[in-house]
Amino acid sequence: MLLLLMGMFVARSVSHTITTLEVPLWADPRREAELRCLYIRQQHDPPLHSVKWYRDMHEIFRYTPQELETRAFNSTGISVTNSSCDPRACVITVRPERGTAKYTCEVSSEGPRFAVDKRSANMTLAVLPEYDPLITGLPTLVQVGEQALVNCTSDYSLPAATIDWFVDSEPQEDPLITAETTVSGADGDGLRASWRTLHVYPDDYPTHRGYLALRCRATVATRPPHVRSMSVRLYVASRPHISSYMFSKNNAVASSSSRFRLETTVWTLLFFVRRQVPSLVK
Ligand SMILES: *[C@@H]1O[C@H](CO)[C@@H](O)[C@H](O)[C@H]1NC(C)=O
Ligand SMILES: *[C@@H]1O[C@H](CO)[C@@H](O)[C@H](O)[C@H]1NC(C)=O
Ligand SMILES: *[C@@H]1O[C@H](CO)[C@@H](O)[C@H](O)[C@H]1NC(C)=O
Ligand SMILES: *[C@@H]1O[C@H](CO)[C@@H](O)[C@H](O)[C@H]1NC(C)=O
């Protein structure tokens, strides 16, 4: 009879229960990420035995309240930079690594059963671009019969952006018109810039209004995707021999489009200044 009662007591004593696991879905490798695990002790539960954090299959941190101890395991290359644990919550900060990793919080109660509750969540590195993509090489004016070659460069991001070009809202897929997206080498934090060139033949767009609307779209494949765009006008000259009326109109168009080229130049300068200054400071 006594054994039966003890058996019932043991069967009813479950583990601490994890109520909340907070792991950021996306993490910036340049900053520490905070992981939070909250748990409750049910009536009849034995005291907390330990809280363990895992990155994939590797234990990275352990809190054992009975021994008043916390331990970080640096062998897997991940560094736990701070921690704050008590009988209700265990919060650690980690320096995130490349790619996607599964973080698990595992809470166990004291014996006799050392019952365990655990929960996992994935964290993926991502850095969104700070700036809109930049269009360079835009001519002041392109003559009918000529072609223009423009270049679009995305800001550094993780993962690298893919770039798409649109002319008058039409996506440009033809490999003769757009090269593939090219990706730069990684900077110290693993971020990369991308660029893609576009050949525009105004003859292919006979209905243009004196200009073609060019749009460059940079997409970072987070979920949901992060999209940034830049739009410019490519001014197209009509054939000068058609009439002097057309010619004077072109001059007006040309002066307004030179403002665009000035803007592009300023943007290019800003872009290079931004990239150069940190390395000068170091
Ligand atoms: C783990 O690495 C962090 C940062 O590099 C360091 O502060 C900490 O002391 C290390 N912990 C152990 C147990 O080596
Ligand atoms: C570590 O965490 C504690 C509690 O959250 C906080 O007060 C402290 O400033 C943190 N230390 C560092 C070096 O981040
Ligand atoms: C984490 O990602 C892996 C691989 O994409 C997936 O199989 C797994 O279900 C994810 N786990 C969680 C807890 O979302
Ligand atoms: C496009 O721009 C990138 C950098 O922004 C540069 O490396 C590349 O050479 C340029 N391509 C052309 C065809 O101008």
Automatic annotation (TrEMBL):
Signal peptide extent: 1-15
PROSITE patterns hit by this protein: IG_LIKE
Domain Ig-like stretches: 35-124
Keyword set, alphabetical order: Signal
Ranges in coiled-coil conformation: none
Gene3D superfamilies: Immunoglobulins
Superkingdom of origin: Eukaryota
Keyword Signal: yes
InterPro entries: Ig-like_dom, Ig-like_dom_sf, Ig-like_fold
Record's protein name: Ig-like domain-containing protein
